[in-house]
């Protein structure tokens, strides 16, 4: 029995009505403070009181999703007529006719005694967080001093963590931090150690917080009522919250595709603290990046004035490693001069070499409005469809397969549908690192009994929650998935009624799968046939299965085939279009879904209409008042290949960093350096910006208003919290100013004006207005009426295809673009890590994030390190047929032997110097997850 359980058992609760049988929708009527109120089944007195506007103190209870009432602090005691003892209102459920009084003298006396006893042990008789829950209620109850003697010994502060201060002299053992860590975030780091008066909060085995397995989500800090846990950013010299924030601005996190709603707490024009808000995708939760990754806004490297390359200054790709040296090749300029210089050169190329000699890279890190205007500028101002963004390097294969198979590129169900699923399949994804808040919903589902199947060549943070962990050979996704499909067809486990009513291509798929028996595929995919059959039966037998995948599926030269096989699995079993069931490719960046929807892709106009579709093109031509090119444009990798050949001569890049993100970046950097004219709009002198002719300082997400669309299809409102630094300008204004200099008569003065035009161009935004988003914060598309909440589950009755039916597309076997051999015996895979994001331009300039992961590493199985004669922390040289990097070795027991992993956020050891530029033939996405490599001691 834990300390918390003992504490609960020792205190009488009074009679409970929790086990009484009632109709599921029965309302319970009782009297609260002299008036009749109603409770839903399972509601507590405290919850009903709060809804009725009656405030009852609380310390160990937190009225937020995921926090169950604990009842150990006794601050919420109320009087129930006819009962001898007071009742803890946070745990007590009412009975019909019960009479409850929340403000009697007896209840108030009991509460005052609780606070006075706790105040005795506060440092200097006051909570460390003067704006926290404890201080607030102590003030409300009139408790400013205690008659009781404090404990003689006080715990020493623990300041070992870069982001958080642990000062347990203010701890009241309420248990909220434990519940935050174990039950909300499911990280299992915080517990209670020792007994009796010696009971203390413990990180792992009484480790310092900075040395523990803490992932710095900060949930415990947000939950703590006293300031025993506080973010260091709010502390004064005495280790207390210096002062309450001046304001809190509701916005959205600018990092991954989860779309967490945040509150930017601002003082003196700077973000002092970030808290999670109760948004539909996060329910108050955040990860380390969303909570502690925002001081990049004021980093000394921040661009605050336009820059123009000095006459004759060389464009040297070596400058990508040394921004300080690169800065000497530029001079500061006025906005008028910089914009004129940028536009005139682009016009010369357009009018001289033709529109196809120009290209643009937009950003999934900005707003929908910026993405829409950027692609409009390239199509209407440049006259070409050579426009793309990072989806090409993220989920282009998923988009291609989804459009082909079900007629829509977005998810069919949100990740929060895990709450209704009885089975979750996660393949080629590491949500605990790349989508940590989404991962909490998957962990929640397993805690209530849902089965979880995790498929990945590497061990993942979800493995310990899984029913089945399937470790397959790298690059053999199709072999594994086809073997599973074979079992489902062979054993007739598929949903025959669903297939007959809503799916085409079954006969062709069945014939194709005949050769993919698990026993035949075992040699290729490395998964025992018995496990394949077990997994197939689990998935097919589920009532509702949610299928999630990540870039391990899509970033492959056969990524579209990977996605085709995965989609076929869900369609065969009818796991689409129902509560708890659906297809969900976890989108990587905060607005990659919205940027794609808005048309920031070369072969699609807004809302995924082909550029070659005459009707769609005619509609956009009328809306925009210009002729559009029907020819699909080049993708990001193809654009740089064309630049290297001299065919693309000018580019406009906003918020993207291809000199770090493209495969084989040595060639990408050489291509960028060869351009006649490169305009880069960004926050910092990135690896791409150092090769520019004009650099335009733009706005960071917390400095702008705009909408973004997350991986769940939730369109959400972001709001400016802090001012722009120096002469930096709003990105939207810069796009409009450039467009006007290109000859476009644009008058967009505010993001709401752009959103209004987007709504005309994009039927997917029907019934979603700027005003509604300002009011509600988030609306899911498709939305069927102005007052409807939006459809989180789609394709309940039909698919958005001409026939209304989905299509099963067989996926054949193919090798990765480059196989290991005697010279390059390792498989190299790349990806993100928890603390850093994309190319590191923001996170590596965030103090806490860089302190947590300050240097590039290459991870290997411990046995491989031993074989190489290298210990963790020593340097290794990693080489492929394209380049060489040196970095620190790290042991990772989750990696199979023969596989090395490098994160791609580090300029000094850029993983993409090594990666294979071969492309998937359909999605045109590079195979970042697989190339042949050699490793040796440096």
Number of helices: 30
As residue ranges, the low-confidence spans are 1-23
- Side-by-side strand order of the widest sheet: 14-13-27-26-25-15-16
Q: How many strand elements? A: 37
Approximately how much helix is present in the residues? 25-40%
CA radius of gyration is 29 Å
Percent of residues in beta strands: 15-25%
* Arithmetic mean pLDDT: 94
How does the major sheet shape up? 7 strands, mixed
CA distance, first residue to last residue: 52 Å
Q: Structural class, judged by helices and strands?
A: alpha/beta
Shape: globular
Task: Give a nutshell description of this structure.
By secondary structure, the protein is of the alpha/beta class. It has 30 helices and 37 strands.
